[in-house]
């Protein structure tokens, strides 16, 4: 896989053609199980939490990056996401799980951020089944905290992209809350091989036998939001420590010539079109 | 098609099961051309613009809805989106086209909104080919201005959802800027039948013969962002006038039992699974 370098992203930001250094790679299935899937609730042993209490916020400009960040406890964040799902669903619950804590620890710009306005991310954006709200929400958080690539640090963009990969390559859901509403034994894990709500949910519904309206399906999606919030904060903490691996794992524009997920054959079958370069 | 009523959305917001009033409908192709596709640059004859100059913004709470809105000129908005695309790409360009004008006319919360943080929406979220950034950006704008359904007005959610339908059922791009970078005769129109970047872009690349890295492809996507910005503002202006038709046009959870786009057979072929209810 290729690396999307800082320079390339800055060039991209200037909307300049990336040139012709194109590598024609196959578009195979990449079903490797994600070894980080063991990220279950495990306390906060490796997290140093910042001081509690909001700071003066007048000086914070939300259009300048990075936003002030203090390390969070992934498990606590996941618990919040799990509970918030039942209030504002997948996308907004991931945003809320991080921003609500930073509103308390840091203050602005988190305190004023309109988290509930992202309710519409549910069901792959207003139930259209496109990107899972947990992936969209995680991308929003990572990019708003670290900043867009145009700000000079592309770690937020990379964290977001790699969380899309994690989402598709992991048996979900992983995180188990302290007080689950449904017996975890009833919630089967499935791997979506896609960041799309429709495919992810469809595979789970088929494997579990539970309909969309069931309490079990809601438990699955709320625990999925919690799992993504856990991974998101783990990555943001690493970034804060200067330890986040900046390699981007999937660069479809370079590898297959079109924005895409990784498993072309899932929809195209054996006749995957070749994108003109 | 069914109507997602205010009551249903409020019930949904409470995460209560929608009950068993389920109608089993077919999942056919809905390729009707959108008759609103003639929305080209045509001036602002039907738009009454508000006063210019920011107002005092201290009293605005971005977590309360609706946000202050003044009617905008759709064609001017589309021109801004077209140009902003070449700076921050599809999703952020749609947000910028509306919020930059409202920052001038209204002030906060638009002035402080971190538009560039949504750069990552490009290419269907970090190039993964999921939801087109123009649809995501339009949903963000509609839901942040009007508010989420939980705020009591579901017009923002409905505008967003119906713009996803408009996106897929329209020969795109529609809007022609005053000074196009590429001769419009070179930019063919295609209908995606999907809100997904990968499918939308793939169909256009196939029909046009231009690769993703070409100036023509960029022109197509920037004009698509402009088209969506035009429609978005047209709808927001109608909402401001109390004239927006609140019927939601596609309610997949009710109609097919799973979050989905409308054309099941495109991926599933003749064996479309039936979702358990």
Question: Can you describe what's shown?
Answer:
- 2 copies of one chain form a homodimer.
- Chain A has 277 residues and is an all-alpha fold.
- Chain A has 8 helices and no strands.
- In chain A, helix 2 packs across helix 3 (133-146), helix 3 (133-146) runs antiparallel to helix 4 (155-168) and helix 4 (155-168) packs antiparallel against helix 6 (215-240).
- The radius of gyration of chain A is 19 Å and the shape is globular.
- The two termini of chain A are 18 Å apart.
Total count of helical runs of at least 4 residues of chain A: 8
Total E-strand runs of chain A? 0
Oligomer: homodimer
Described by the principal axes of the CA atoms, the overall outline of chain A is globular
How many angstroms separate the termini of chain A? 18 Å
Mean pLDDT of chain A: 84
Which helices and strands, and how do they pair?
2 copies of one chain form a homodimer.
Chain A: H1 6-13, H2 74-105, H3 133-146, H4 155-168, H5 197-208, H6 215-240, H7 252-255, H8 265-268
Helix pairs in contact in A: 2-3, 2-6, 3-4, 3-6, 4-6
Q: Short description, anyone?
A:
Helices cover 41% and strands 0% of the residues of chain A. Chain A has 277 residues and is mostly helical.
Descriptive tags:
homodimer; 277 residues; mainly alpha; 8 helices
């Amino acid at each position: 896989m290729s690396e999307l370098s800082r320079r390339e992203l800055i060039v991209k930001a200037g909307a300049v053609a990336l040139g012709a250094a194109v590598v024609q790679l196959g578009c195979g299935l990449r079903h490797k199980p994600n070894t980080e899937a063991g990220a279950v609730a495990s306390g906060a042993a490796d997290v140093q939490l910042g001081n509690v209490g909001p700071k003066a916020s007048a000086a914070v400009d939300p259009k300048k990056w990075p936003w002030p960040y203090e390390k969070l406890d992934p498990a606590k964040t996941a618990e919040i996401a799990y509970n918030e799902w039942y209030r504002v669903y997948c996308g907004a619950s991931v945003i809320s799980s991080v921003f609500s804590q930073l509103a308390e620890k840091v203050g602005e710009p988190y305190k004023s951020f309109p988290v509930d306005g992202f309710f519409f991310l549910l069901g792959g954006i207003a139930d259209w089944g496109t990107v899972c709200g947990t992936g969209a929400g995680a991308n929003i958080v990572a990019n708003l905290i670290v900043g867009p690539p145009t700000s000079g640090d592309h770690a937020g963009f990379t964290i977001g992209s790699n969380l899309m990969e994690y989402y598709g390559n992991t048996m979900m859901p992983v995180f188990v809350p302290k007080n689950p509403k449904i017996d975890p034994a009833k919630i089967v894990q499935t791997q979506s091989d896609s960041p799309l709500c429709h495919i992810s949910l469809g595979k789970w519904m088929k494997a579990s036998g539970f309909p969309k309206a069931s309490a079990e399906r809601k438990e699955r999606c709320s625990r999925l939001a919690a799992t993504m919030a856990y991974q998101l904060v783990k990555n943001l903490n690493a970034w804060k420590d200067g330890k986040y691996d900046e390699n981007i794992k999937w660069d479809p524009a370079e590898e297959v010539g079109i924005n895409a997920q990784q498993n072309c054959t899932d929809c195209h079958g054996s006749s995957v079109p070749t994108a003109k370069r």
